[in-house]
Amino acid sequence: MTPLDEARDHVFARCGRLPAMELRLEDARGLITALDVTAAEDVPPFDNTAVDGFAVQAADTARFADGACTADGLRIVGTMAAGARPDRPIAAGQAMRIMTGAPMPPGADAVVMVEDSVTTGDFVQFTRSVDAGDAVRRSGSDVRTGTLVLPSGTHLSPAHIGVLASIGRSRVSVVRRARVAVLSTGDELVRDDRALEPGEIRESNARMISGLVAQAGCDVVDLGIVRDDEDALAEVLRDAAGRFDAIVTSGGVSMGDFDVVKAVLSRIADMRWMQIAIKPAKPFAFGLLNSTPVFGLPGNPVSSLVSFELIARPALRRMMGHGPTADRLSVRGIADETFERGPDGKTHFVRARGSFGVDGRLHVRSTGGQGSHQLASSASANALVVLPDGEGFPAGSELEVILLLND
Ligand code: AMP
Ligand code: MG
């Protein structure tokens, strides 16, 4: 059996990084920046008010320091909304009514919020004094021209997209999104709603894996079911290799007589077939077909899911330039039940549900039936509990938990 790390290294070493391209911001979320981004302008671009209120000379408010609001008011010389031009000055003894985001009038050095003011006709009094700079947002106080805003390799969150928009960038250079084809193999599989004939089962993996591929950040095309026919499969794979960056297949990689994926890949691709030392999901095939990675996942739905998580997903994300975010987050959790197993030379991955306890720690329980055909009991899993070879863990133990959370 191949250790999981060796299988992963073998696969990752053959999954080259995709080229960079410029995308509109609205299309770039979740991708990895391919170049440093430096600010070409200040944010905010000018000094402006952080509150609705009155722009003043702070010294003019000293007489209101007692909070009594009895001193002579300042004369209101105008009103500035956000978007007003910053060219209407005030002088000593004057105040400008001003709305959040409006530029500071020349001559003003502070803003008193409207809640601290009392207006009578053209005059305003205050219930407090302010210091120079109060409630003023300085130009460049968020981002200064020339600073490195996002280094190359940044995983673009919606907030990063907002930052890019704020500095006037409408496009960004990113590692391209992988285009991935998904297909299932098996003569027993049925995809339409008709009644099953004896021996047939419903196809589930292609649509499940397509969802996982999309959640991994790739563009996905579901090619449906291919029969257990070597020539038919070879043709579909060859065609897909020319049109996609990667192919994910399910089924046909074990020791059976009709395991066509294994047979075809050994014929037409530079292929490695592995028995990985994990449970579920022991059989796994990987090949390069005209340099396009082909991930041959096992057909048992749970095995398919787990081997996608452990090998295909991180490989696809590496192709898209991910570094630390290629893999799921792995944390320490507390077993809320016994996680039993026996020694068999494999690492077991138990589908589990984790939640934070009042102790602030992550607590995990198995989702139930762990057979590799029991997808329904795995569906609510938000974590994989890692059980190294051995006897498992009693309740209360600390163990490794892989979080199946999407970013
Ligand atoms: P295989 O890896 O092709 O030997 O398939 C292993 C098991 O998974 C068999 O019971 C198959 O019927 C089942 N299986 C294979 N592909 C799928 C699929 N796409 N959807 C649901 N079950 C499948
Ligand atoms: Mg099969």
Write the layout of secondary structure elements.
Layout: H1 4-13, E1 20-24, E2 37-38, E3 48-49, E4 53-56, E5 74-80, E6 94-98, E7 110-113, E8 117-120, E9 123-126, E10 136-137, E11 148-150, H2 158-166, E12 171-175, E13 179-185, E14 189-190, E15 201-202, H3 205-215, E16 219-226, H4 230-243, E17 246-250, H5 260-268, E18 270-275, E19 278-279, E20 283-289, E21 292-297, H6 301-319, E22 330-335, E23 339-340, E24 347-356, E25 362-366, H7 375-378, E26 383-387, E27 392-393, E28 398-403
Parallel strand pairs: 5-6, 13-16, 13-17, 14-15, 17-21, 19-24, 22-25
Antiparallel strand pairs: 1-12, 2-11, 3-10, 4-6, 4-7, 5-9, 8-9, 18-20, 20-21, 22-28, 23-27, 24-25, 24-26, 26-28
Helix pairs in contact: 1-6, 3-6, 4-5
The protein binds adenosine monophosphate and magnesium ion.
Adenosine monophosphate (AMP) binds at residues 184, 186, 188-189, 201, 203-206, 250-254, 256, 298-301.
Key terms for this structure?
six-stranded mixed beta sheet; binds magnesium ion; 28 strands; alpha/beta; about 400 residues; binds adenosine monophosphate
